[in-house]
Write a structure and sequence with these properties.
The protein is mainly β. It has a single domain (6-122), classed as Jelly Rolls (Sandwich). The protein contains no helices and 9 strands. The chain has strands at residues 6-8, 18-19, 27-33, 38-52, 58-65, 75-82, 91-100, 105-112, 120-131. Strands 1, 2, 4, 7 and 9 form a 5-stranded antiparallel sheet that branches. The protein has a 4-stranded antiparallel sheet with strand order 3-8-5-6, with no helix packed on it. It starts with 5 loop residues before the first strand and ends in a 15-residue tail after the last strand. 30% of the residues are buried.
Length: 146
């Protein structure tokens, strides 16, 4: 389906891009800074603890930040709805097609807390990236060393 993919599951600070509790309050879970031109092809959430939320589905999202460390211009690229009963080991995914350049960031976010029943759930984000060829001279955030 994709050629020469890169799978990213760790944030810039070397922590897992994970939601340890899908019933918790909304929060950013980590950012990934792009260092090579690529296309984000798919966002995924690997369920590691069965999802139980009978009244409100948990929602995870991936946002795009055009400027490193700044939420100015931040936009949501896609959401993943974690349905009640999704079992551990399942991968919830959404196909996207976003070209990315060095210095831009992807932010994984736990957007909506699941609720209802014996609410539970956890998992890890996966970002499927496809590198693309581009001359560094055409990229404003690439600086050649002296």
């Amino acid at each position: 389906m994709f050629n020469n993919i890169i799978i990213v599951d760790t944030a810039d600070d070397n922590t897992a891009l994970a939601t340890a509790d899908t019933t918790a309050s909304a929060a950013d879970k980590g950012a990934v800074t792009i260092v090579h031109p690529c296309v984000l092809r798919q966002i995924q959430f690997l369920v590691t603890t069965n999802i139980v939320n009978t009244t409100t589905a948990a929602v995870e999202s991936v946002d795009y930040r055009p400027t490193y460390g700044s939420d100015t211009g931040r936009v949501e690229l896609g959401t993943l709805v974690l349905a009640n009963g999704t079992a551990a080991g399942k991968v919830v995914y959404k196909n996207v097609n976003k070209k990315l350049s060095p210095g831009e960031q992807l932010v994984c976010r736990h957007k909506t807390a699941g609720a209802g029943g014996s609410a539970a759930g956890a998992g890890r984000f996966r970002l499927i990236l496809e590198p693309i060829s581009e001359n560094p001279l055409n990229l404003s955030n690439m600086v050649a060393s002296a």
